[in-house]
Known about the structure:
By secondary structure, this protein is an alpha/beta fold. Helix content is 38%, strand content 19%. It folds into two domains: 8-180, 3-Layer(aba) Sandwich (Rossmann fold), CATH 3.40.50; 191-254, Helicase, Ruva Protein, domain 3, CATH 1.10.8.100. The protein has eleven helices and nine strands. Helix 8 crosses helix 9, helix 8 (191-203) packs across helix 11 and helix 9 (209-216) packs across helix 10 (221-231). The protein is elongated.
Amino acid sequence: MRKFSQVFLTNESAAVRIAETACGLPADHLVEIGPGRGALTRHLYSLRNCPMTLVEIDRDLAPKLSPQYPEARVVNSDFLRLDLEKEFPGVRVAFAGNLPYDCATPILDRILAFPRFAGAVLMFQKEVADKALAAPGDPEYGYLSVMTAARSSARRLMDLGPGSFRPRPRVDSAVVVFSPLPEPFIPPGLEPLFVRTVKAAFMHRRKTVLNSLSAAFGGDKAGAAAALEKSGIDPSLRAQALSPSDFLRLAAALRPAA
């Protein structure tokens, strides 16, 4: 029985392409999340042009990595529990990995929120990749779509079927490349409110943005209506119709006056 939702990549050509893309990112340090049995690791290791860290949660697999990759640092830990600022101080970090299906979204959220994020090449369940890449109006568009666009530019590198893995998953997978934006999209100090606003808007997808916001912000329907008017957003719209720029204006309008 596999642990930690592990699905191991066996497609050699896909591993090479992922490694080539990840090692081409302009970074000072490369981190692989969940190296597992090393299908991707060996290619990253041979192509790397900067120091490398392998973060592996499995206590059985982690000890086997150091002898195979002696110049890489191995951290036996849950990536979601790592203090990234402490582990990688003052350097631009690129990330790569075949992410566990059950925690891929919070891992992506942590990566994109890291201040010195230099890029990432990550494999997801295809459904998660579709959500990350969705545009306003798409059925898959939601919180993950907005936060991805607000923190990075993203593109699909490839799709992979179940035959590329062992054990065979019941779903397709996809690899997405994330690059940092040239300039921050969210102004300093506004990110917590931006995140809260986006989460609130998508909490009840069938409701109008006016009703979703008023429910999440203490039932203040008049305040939500005023913020929407100030932002130039039709209060009868649903969250799926709002662009990241719409959400940014809305968060700024919801910010309490100094």
